[in-house]
Design brief:
With 552 residues, the protein is an alpha/beta fold. It has three domains: 13-222, Up-down Bundle (Substrate Binding Domain Of Dnak, Chain:A, Domain 2); 229-360, Rossmann fold; 377-551, Rossmann fold. The chain has helices at 28-53, 59-70, 80-104, 116-119, 128-135, 143-168, 174-186, 194-223, 248-258, 278-281, 297-304, 353-360, 379-384, 386-395, 415-423, 463-476, 496-507, 525-535, 543-551, and strands spanning 229-232, 240-244, 264-267, 286-289, 308-310, 328-330, 340-341, 372-375, 400-403, 428-432, 447-448, 451-452, 454-456, 487-492, 514-516, 538-539. The strands form four sheets. Strands 4-3-2-5-6-7 form a six-stranded parallel beta sheet. α10 (278-281) links the parallel β3 (264-267) and β4 (286-289). The chain is globular and about 65 Å long. The structure holds iron/sulfur cluster (SF4) and FE4-S3 cluster (SF3). Its main location: cytoplasm. GO terms for molecular function: 4 iron, 4 sulfur cluster binding; hydroxylamine reductase activity; metal ion binding; peroxidase activity.
Length: 552
Amino acid sequence: MNNMFCFQCQETSRNQGCTVMGVCGKNDEVSNLQDVLIFVVKGVALYSNKLRQNNKIYENVNEYLYRALFSTITNANFDGEEIKEYIYEGIKLRKFLAKELENTKILIDSKFEGSRLATFEFDESCDLVDLAHEIGVLRTENEDIRSLREIILYGLKGLSAYGFHALNLKFESNEIFDFFEKALIATEDNDLSAEKLTNLVFETGKFGVDVMALLDRANNSAFGTPEMTKVNIGVGKNPGILISGHDLKDIKELLEQTEGTGIDVYTHSEMLPAHYYPELKKYKHLVGNYGNAWYHQTTEFETFNGPVVFTTNCLVPPKKNATYNDRIFTLNATGLPGWKKLKTDENGKIDFSEVIELAKKCKSPTEIESGTITGGFAHGQVFALADKIVEAVKSGAIKKFIVMSGCDARQTTRKYYAEFAKKLPKDVVILTSGCAKFRYNKLNLGDIDGIPRVLDAGQCNDSYSWAVVALKLKEIFNANDINDLPIEFNIAWYEQKAVIVLLALLYLGIKNIHIGPTLPAFISKNVASLLNEQFGLTGITTVDNDLQIFFS
Ligand code: SF4
Ligand code: SF3
């Protein structure tokens, strides 16, 4: 029997599955505990959904469901003790909900009543390997059913992440929660056929669109409409705090608490787009972005010299000789043994005083690059430039757009994306979002009539912007089908947020998407054929060959 089994990300061992230890650094104990947690989360969803049907909604349960599932996303949480706390918290919540249900005399689904999902208990004496085998990925023997169940689950993980950020800004949707719970329960329903599960995969994409739209509204109302912005990538003389991850409410609080302290704030990786929002860029001490995509952190945190705050993934377990461990703080669903966890109070406020005091004692960051990069092309800014863009398309100055949103990661095969960007015909504009952009956003690819050739909409969830832009272009050009537009899709994926983005694009009817650098291990051969036949979804090949396919 395997020590563990996980195949949810692009770096999974041999593109089959991590069975001894995660390539990401997740050990077998944490992996198995996460399997248990996912099972517990489904049990909570079972009761919560029944009560929801009867208009009984519990805010703390909603928050738990998102936060707990989010903690199982790749590179979010490596702390087994914290995962156990989530498990115990879930079992307590499930019991509470069961009592509530008893009081209301509502019956739970007879199919699940008395089942393990409804009654499961956990304690330290449980054999984790046995347990994970019974309730983890490999519980499903049929590989197509397994594939469909896991696609849904990973889509829901991505949905939970985006839903969590929106919730942090007090934006929520009962309809999304309702689907989220129902789909979680469905992944345990042995009566669902492959056809029904396939439909659920596409429905997950619909709610992917909804959750990204919700988060877009939340971010825009809290921080203004992203606008074209030049971001400094050099450093100043003051000590700094580096903030990473995706949660914009967290950076806003950090900026408020550091104002006037003499500390500068820098963004890392997916926090770069914070600079594009008026209500965040107005802080003079938000001085720049330090470094590149998440996996460079093992060297970049060394030279940053000051404290680092993680609001979400991607965390990388430090090397043995790392000197920065006592400078790292985590928040929300993230955790790593030995790194300090910052707590939020009952009003959701974070106390950054410890981070600020530490920063004051640290050296200022060591410069690793200089200059600026430009971004801020979410749908609002693109619409403001619409006339110029449409004119460039009509005159033939812009021949095509290529959406290259998604994730970056370590594998050397990802050099493909930098090479692909460099070799693109000069009349092609890259539309990007997510950390994938770090492969080509510093290549100085120039502009077309003042329109930069790399338009960065923001974080991975801002891929939604490209769907909105595509729909707008369809209207402007009076096209019958979104696929008739001069837009191609070459998406780089890594973790499960990319899965919900992909499902959302499929739901919107976008065809012929290329994904890479490899096809997901969790997509079985039959499911891959179905996606290929129905949507033209395919993998990447070589740069030259793909350029031929896209531009000949
Ligand atoms: Fe392996 Fe990815 Fe799972 Fe980590 S998250 S254990 S690398 S499949
Ligand atoms: Fe990156 Fe982790 Fe996916 Fe939000 S930070 S895109 S990989």
